[in-house]
Write a structure and sequence with these properties.
With 90 residues, the protein is mainly α. It has a single domain, classed as DNA polymerase, domain 1. Helix content is 71%, strand content 0%. It is built from 4 helices and no strands. The protein is globular, with a radius of gyration of 12 Å.
Amino acid sequence: MDDCLTFGDVAEEFLQMTRMNVLVRRQYRRHLETYVIPIIGGVPFAKLTNEHVARVLQSNAALQNAALMKRVDIIIADVRRYGAPRTAQA
């Protein structure tokens, strides 16, 4: 994977390349754009750590709702899984 790809780049590619229901894709995009990208979108994907994820989950007041926090955590995990094989190739 290109070292200059950010989490935001990989998240966008994930949304474009992954087969999912239109409504689910819309929800993923909304949650990424609202809660995740503003905080870790610029982090190089290969350098993303669990601490970055924790920062997202702790710094959003709206994520005090446990169900929403879990959804955002799952979305981040899905993007990380999508990009992980490509990181291993670098």
